[in-house]
Amino acid sequence: MKLIISSSELLKGIMAVSKAIPAKSSLPILENFLFDLHGNYLEITASDSELTLRTRVEVESAESEGKIAVPARHVQDLLKEIPDQPITIQTIKENYFECSWMGGASTLPYFPADEYPQITTTDETAVEVKFPAQTLVDGISSTIYATDDDEMRPVMNGILFDMGPTGTTLVASDSRKLICFTTADVKTAEQSCFILHKKPAAVLRSIIGKDTEDVTITYDGKNAVFAFDDTIAVCRLIVGKYPRYRDVIPQNNSNVLKIDRQQLLNCVRRVSVCANKAQNHIKFDLESGALTVSAQDLGFSIAAHEKTACQYDGEDLQIGFKSTFLVDILSNLSCGEVVIKFADSRRAALLLPSDEGEQTEKICAILMPIQI
Predict the structure, then answer these.
(1) Count of CB atoms within 10 A of residue 277's CB?
(2) How many helices (H) and strands (E) does the chain have?
(3) What is the rounded CA–CA span in Å between residue 299 and residue 326?
(4) Strand 317-322 relative to strand 223-228: parallel, antiparallel, unpaired?
(5) What is the phi/psi pair of residue 45, to 5°?
(6) What is the tens place of the pLDDT at every residue in 36-95?
(7) Helices 261-272 + 323-332 axis angle, to 10
(8) pLDDT in tens, 211-258
(9) Residue 44 C-beta-side C-alpha neighbours within 13 Å
(10) If DSSP codes are grouped into helix, strand and coil, which group holds residue 257?
């Protein structure tokens, strides 16, 4: 293998896939990038066996094609220190390659490409759908924080993509809060779904560029392939049945609070300073035209309360929440005003942006109360 390529373009390419390199792996070969030179393109692959990222970079010239596995950390660190210029990469002897630049060169080991595991993608049963890139990023950002960390319930460690003829809903829940992000822009001929683990979801969110228009998603029962620009991400899916989330969305909560989102968020943050740090419990006292948020920690004999104006239509109500969950939800909504609908002090509250209007993306959150 021998090629000449821009150092900055090569660095950009390996940075695009580097998030798939594991910190430590039972397969040492996965701590390498797979370089595959064919034609005028260098294809770069990185994988941790659960997530595979692959991109391609155009080369300035290629004298001989080939495929080798190169040490990820060394190559990445070296390219970061080389100013933008053409560099030459070539195999020089068995198991070694040279990276040369103006006035210098580095010799590094490589490993045979046939030791790199084969990447499994989708089969003939796969479904393909086109997703607007920004909508996908917004959907992941709006839901990923609500996923669970309990490895005993793997389906809750990911985001459900529930696709059908009327639209697509991304869902995440840890059983105490549930977030649904729905878009009418993405539809499939028949109802289908898959569960994407939170780790590849976070990686996708970080590598999809602002200039990317669409992401093509191809998925079957085991894998999903996300293709955009010159990059593909092959993600192993979580196998299992997601709970019937639509059944737990409240439909008839008649006590309605409407309040400025940032105002409520700041109030909850201030008052929760005096909440018990192990429980983070706060209380809402609702009455016509006013909301009082309070918290106390009897162990340290501290307490706080704050009364704030609001629009409230319903019966006087006292209800408790875990403040950290409420802060998470309010922080991840982008609306000016939020509507919170209550049934009573024991049943889940429904949170909605009040200014959705005719938007094609809609979001709702469900938060379970706590005893006060």
Answers:
(1) 11
(2) 6, 27
(3) 23
(4) unpaired
(5) -125, 140
(6) 999 999 999 999 999 999 999 999 999 889 999 999 999 999 999 999 999 999 999 889
(7) 150
(8) 999 999 999 999 999 999 999 999 999 999 999 999 999 988 999 999
(9) 27
(10) strand
How far is CA 311 from each of CA 258, 262, 267, 332, 344, rounded to the nearest angstrom?
Answer: 5, 15, 16, 22, 18
CB 285 within 8 A of CB 318: yes
- Name residue, tokens 């010239």: 61
Residue 67 CB coordination number (10 Å): 17
360 pLDDT higher than 90: no
Q: For residue 342, what are the contacts with CB-CB under 8 A and spacing of at least 6?
A: 253, 255, 256, 257, 286, 314, 317, 319, 349
Cα–Cα distance for residue pair 348/355, rounded to 1 Å: 22
- For residue 226, give the nearest of 145, 140, 113, 146 by alpha carbon: 140
Mean pLDDT of 192-214: 95
The string of pLDDT tens digits covering residues 304-313 is: 999 999 999 9
d(CA 82, CA 14): 14
Q: Tokens 């822009």 sit at which residue?
A: 185
